[in-house]
């Protein structure tokens, strides 16, 4: 290439580069100005987020939802329960059978919570009672009914008593719910439709058939809108409306039925909404007889009882306790009136008025009735409650923790006692007596300055003089019973003071030390079982005090007195007299009663510290008695005095064989019974010396000793400090065996360290050779102590256990103890006493149930966790023990007592003329029965629905086991179902009638009451007008508090007459407000 060509080439390349740069700049400008419409919007991202969450939860392609049963919910664990095959209303009410998952999601700037609720059931399909789904329907019709419609069509899912509102309204076993967060609300229908539209797209894309709901308005209104995707081109729309008042035009079923038909189609007609076989486009699906339109309704009337007549209250001070069946249980203390105040903790029910049962909900149900058979309007109604084929009763007990504490008096006494220790100062308890003395003197001075006329009036009319003399007489005879304590507090309440006079407190303390209780025979109840033995074994591990011991008695008495008076001053008086009794026993040398089962000085470290200190005090008294009455074989020395000590001389003469032996007990013998001799003097047998017992120590003293030894670094000093007992034994051994050696002492004191060194040969005449073990040969501590030991009998040794000092230290500590420390010491005893009493009451109920109910009884409501009780007791967490275990156990027993009391009064009232006793039902379970006959004056048209063909026949036999089984199911199940022909139904109606009579008498004066003729229990219910003018008679129910209707329709075409038939549902609730929850299905393929 020449030079010109080269220049031309360079020029062309430069021009080309310039053109490329210009082209790139133009492209960049064009790309910058392009609008990209492929970017996802907020609405599309919201749908994608829903799909992502549903995919993560494995809710895609859920035609039969069979894969949902294996879902795991780690965020909300639930207890493992038996898997059921079908979801009934009773099971739907169980919160433990529901699984819940939730995820956060956002739409624009609004945060939502997407939740999934699912009922755990067996994945195997099980046929249930459904409406409009016959077995011979075509397969296409089966596919049209997915899981949600199988739930809504099943009458087994009707009327769940608890759970999510959507479960109550629709009976669904699974559903999705989106809820706005951070105080946001969906207040307009447009916003709700936008959310449901997004959800509908997501459900359709994933082929998910689970209903999707969104919460509208505030949560307390329980309003929802929803959509459900179904196979074969169907979609269900869920809507809920709510009015604060019932519209006048929709108070009866016939009016609601008109509303339902209008909602189905504006011009409702069976023939205009269903394609007939005459149509040219008819096919096998549309001409099937299974698609004939049907409308059926399930009805429930609910009656509430939340105001109990006085005689039905479990706690009523005006009752005659001797005539009450439930008061025969020892829980209420009727059988404890003659028991002493220290034997057990006593709950006072005198001022308690109320009942743990707050409400009864009686429901009369017509399960599935053809709508043309019912007439219910303003002029006539076939829905008479006595003709309902199915009745159910639900018991609601108080859920307020304050009310439960109010009724659980035994546990509450313990809680009050614990709180007393928490808020009490650390000042000595006896200081309260000094302050009270000053206040009393000041009040006395003020009293003397009052008007002399008022003083004379008081002297002329003494208050409660007869009661005081009676109580004083009882006190002098030391018959201080629980009834005396109750009477004493009634007397104190009458005088306006909560302080108990000192003479009565002293009498209570005297009863603590009364020995007459030891001669009383022990009550033997044959109600023990294997479970009781296990409970006793576990209770024996609790670190408390033995039952009926002195510490046990004192703890019970302290709680009883404080529980009755709530005055710490009374406890100070009690403690003062208790200390006086301790000093009296110490000075007179009398052992404390009800304390030790044996005569040894061993301290039971398995008991609480307070009991250990009393054991230590008793050991001091025992050592004092032993020292004062110790007899020597030759002479009684003056050093036996308990107030003088003999310290061994610092230098003693060396031991020799001519020294006189002292303090010998008995000769030592080997395993063959042959006497053992001294090694240095083969003719002298080894004498076992009299030795001092080791000093007993409580666990707090032992802990201080261990801490002190841990602070010493010198190992030899530690050993010397722990070898005081060994040195005493060596000195006593030398005094009893003059001329003995260290080896002789080892042969007596530690035989296992005297071992055989060599054995004799059979042909040799040499004997066996024994000697010290290697441990003793190398041990310098024992040898050093042996060298330091001097011959000194035990009577001249310095005492290892200075019982005088120990006893005075205990008394001094008790005199300066604070109320908080006293409560702390007695709390383990009080806690165990409460637990034992509750378990005894529990055993009494179980024995009553098992002896009167031959079948299997569900007594899970009385179950207890002994492992948890033992753990909380051991760590001293009494507050949690009360809240978690004890209060639940006592409240469960109160449930049984309350229901039993209600049926007792109803039975006694019902059979008042026959003079039949409720207690007779439980005396002879096999033979005692009661029969009652009722008649019906006129058969209503609804009788065809309830199928009561034998309504005039004998209602059946009633036994005590029937009541027990009914009560147990009423406690353990959400609601108890029965029929109107049961005898119990008559008694329940009697209770409702008595309650209505009670409310009528409370709301009207005696002169304004309308006299009513005497009616029997077989009368029919009065008309509505009569009910407004007079109280309900004993044989009828009051007007229902709430009415519920579930209307189901199948074979109805929506939204157009030529659409394929589908199923529809509407739930109506009429009570204080008006609520309708509808589920209408539309054909989105042929609309």
TrEMBL record:
An example molecular function term from Gene Ontology annotations: GTPase activator activity
Stretches for region Disordered: 516-542, 1003-1035
Basic and acidic residues: bias regions: 520-531
Keywords: Cytoplasm, Endoplasmic reticulum, Golgi apparatus, GTPase activation
Subcellular location: Cytoplasm; Endoplasmic reticulum; Golgi apparatus, cis-Golgi network
Domain spans labelled Rab3GAP catalytic subunit C-terminal: 990-1086
Residues spanning the membrane: none
A Pfam family assignment: Rab3-GAP_cat_C
One Gene Ontology cellular component annotation held by this UniProt entry: Golgi apparatus
Keyword Endoplasmic reticulum recorded: yes
Name used for this protein in its record: Rab3 GTPase-activating protein catalytic subunit
């Amino acid at each position: 290439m020449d030079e010109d060509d080269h220049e031309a080439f360079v020029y062309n390349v430069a021009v080309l580069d310039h053109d490329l740069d210009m082209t790139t700049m133009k492209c960049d400008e064009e790309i910058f100005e392009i609008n990209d419409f492929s970017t996802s919007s907020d609405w599309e991202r919201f749908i994608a987020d829903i799909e992502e969450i549903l995919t993560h939860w494995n809710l895609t392609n859920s035609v039969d939802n069979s894969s949902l049963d294996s879902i795991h919910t780690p965020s909300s664990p639930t207890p493992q329960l038996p898997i059921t095959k079908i979801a009934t209303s009773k099971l739907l009410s169980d919160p433990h059978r529901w699984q819940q998952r939730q995820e956060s999601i956002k739409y624009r700037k609004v945060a939502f919570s997407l939740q999934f609720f699912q009922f755990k059931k067996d994945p195997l399909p099980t046929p249930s009672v459904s409406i409009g789904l016959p077995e011979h329907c075509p397969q296409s019709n089966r596919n049209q009914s997915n899981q949600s419609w199988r739930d809504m069509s099943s009458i087994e899912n009707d009327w769940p008593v608890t759970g999510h509102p959507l479960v109550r309204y629709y009976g669904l076993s699974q559903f999705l719910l989106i809820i706005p967060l951070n105080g946001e609300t969906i207040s307009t229908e447009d916003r709700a439709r936008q959310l449901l539209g997004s959800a509908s797209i997501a459900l359709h894309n994933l082929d998910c058939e689970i209903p999707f709901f969104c919460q509208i308005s505030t949560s307390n209104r329980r309003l929802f809108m929803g959509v459900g995707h179904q196979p074969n081109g169907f979609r269900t729309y869920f809507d809920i409306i709510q009015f604060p008042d019932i519209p006048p035009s929709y108070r009866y079923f016939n009016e609601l039925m008109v509303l339902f038909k209008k909602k189905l189609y504006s011009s409702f007609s069976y023939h205009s909404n269903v394609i007939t076989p005459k149509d040219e486009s008819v096919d096998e699906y549309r001409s099937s007889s299974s698609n004939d339109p049907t409308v059926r309704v399930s009805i429930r009337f609910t009656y509430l009882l939340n105001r109990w007549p006085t005689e039905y209250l479990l706690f009523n001070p005006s009752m005659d306790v001797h005539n009450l069946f439930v008061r025969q249980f020892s829980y209420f203390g009727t059988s404890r009136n003659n028991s002493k105040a220290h034997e057990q903790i006593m709950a006072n029910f005198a001022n308690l008025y109320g009942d743990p049962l707050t409400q009864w909900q009686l429901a009369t149900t017509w399960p599935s009735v053809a709508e043309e058979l019912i007439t219910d309007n303003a002029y006539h109604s076939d829905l008479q409650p006595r003709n309902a084929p199915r009745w159910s009763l639900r018991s609601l007990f108080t859920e307020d923790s304050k009310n439960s504490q109010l009724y659980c008096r035994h546990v509450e006494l313990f809680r009050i006692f614990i709180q007393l220790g928490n808020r009490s100062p650390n000042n000595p308890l006896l200081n309260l007596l000094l302050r009270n003395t000053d206040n009393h003197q000041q009040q006395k001075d003020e009293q003397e300055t009052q008007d002399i006329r008022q003083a004379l009036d008081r002297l002329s009319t003494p208050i409660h003089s007869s009661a005081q003399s009676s109580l004083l007489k009882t006190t002098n005879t030391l018959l201080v019973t629980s009834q005396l304590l109750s009477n004493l507090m009634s007397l104190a309440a009458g005088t306006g003071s909560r302080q108990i006079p000192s003479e009565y407190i002293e009498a209570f303390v005297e009863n603590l030390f009364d020995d007459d209780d030891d001669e009383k025979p022990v009550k033997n109840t044959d109600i023990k079982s294997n479970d009781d033995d296990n409970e006793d074994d576990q209770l024996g591990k609790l670190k408390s005090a033995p039952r009926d011991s002195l510490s046990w008695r004192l703890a019970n008495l302290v709680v009883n007195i404080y529980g009755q008076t709530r005055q710490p001053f009374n406890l100070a008086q009690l403690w003062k007299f208790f200390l006086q009794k301790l000093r009296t026993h110490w000075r007179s040398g009398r052992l404390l009663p009800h304390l030790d089962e044996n005569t040894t000085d061993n301290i039971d470290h398995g008991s609480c510290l307070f009991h250990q200190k009393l054991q230590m005090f008793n050991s001091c008294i025992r050592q004092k008695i032993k020292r004062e009455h110790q007899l020597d074989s030759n002479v009684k020395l003056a050093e036996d005095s308990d107030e003088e000590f003999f310290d061994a001389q610092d230098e003693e003469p060396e031991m020799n064989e001519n020294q006189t032996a002292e303090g010998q007990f008995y000769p030592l013998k080997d395993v063959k019974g042959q006497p053992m001799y001294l090694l240095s003097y083969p003719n002298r047998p080894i004498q076992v010396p009299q030795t001092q017992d080791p000093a007993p120590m409580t666990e707090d003293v032992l802990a201080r000793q261990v801490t002190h030894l841990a602070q010493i670094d010198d190992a030899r000093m530690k050993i010397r400090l722990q070898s005081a007992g060994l040195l005493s034994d060596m000195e006593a051994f030398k005094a009893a065996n003059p001329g003995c050696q260290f080896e002789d002492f080892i042969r007596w004191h530690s035989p296992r360290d005297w071992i055989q060194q060599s054995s004799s040969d059979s042909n040799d005449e040499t004997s066996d050779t024994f000697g010290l073990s290697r441990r003793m040969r190398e041990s310098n501590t024992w040898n050093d102590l042996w060298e330091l030991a001097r011959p000194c009998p035990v009577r001249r040794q310095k005492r290892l256990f200075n019982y005088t000092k120990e006893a005075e230290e205990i008394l001094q500590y008790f005199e300066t103890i604070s109320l908080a420390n006293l409560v702390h010491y007695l709390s383990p005893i009080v806690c165990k006493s409460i637990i034992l009493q509750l378990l005894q009451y529990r055993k009494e109920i179980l024995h009553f149930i098992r002896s009167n109910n031959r079948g299997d009884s569900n007594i899970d409501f009385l179950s207890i966790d002994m492992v948890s009780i033992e753990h909380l007791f051991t760590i001293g967490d009494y507050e949690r023990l009360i809240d978690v275990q004890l209060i639940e156990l006592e409240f469960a027993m109160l449930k049984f007592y309350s229901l039993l009391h209600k049926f007792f009064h109803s039975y006694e009232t019902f059979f008042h003329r026959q003079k039949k006793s409720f207690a007779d039902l439980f005396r002879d379970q096999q033979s005692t029965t009661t029969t009652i006959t009722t008649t019906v004056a006129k058969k209503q048209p609804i009788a065809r629905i309830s199928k009561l063909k034998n309504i005039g026949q004998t209602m059946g036999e009633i036994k005590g086991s029937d009541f027990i089984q009914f009560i147990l199911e009423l406690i353990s199940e959400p609601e108890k179902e029965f029929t109107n022909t049961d005898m119990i139904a008559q008694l329940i109606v009697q209770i409702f009638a008595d309650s209505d009579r009670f409310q009528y008498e409370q709301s009207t004066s005696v002169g304004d009451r309308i006299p009513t003729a005497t009616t029997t229990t077989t009368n029919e219910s009065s008309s509505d007008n009569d009910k407004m003018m007079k109280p309900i008679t004993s044989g009828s129910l009051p007007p229902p508090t709430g009415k519920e209707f579930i209307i189901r329709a199948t074979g109805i075409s929506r939204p157009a007459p030529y659409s394929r038939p589908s199923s529809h549902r509407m739930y109506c609730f009429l009570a204080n407000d008006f609520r309708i929850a509808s589920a209408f299905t539309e054909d989105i393929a042929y609309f």
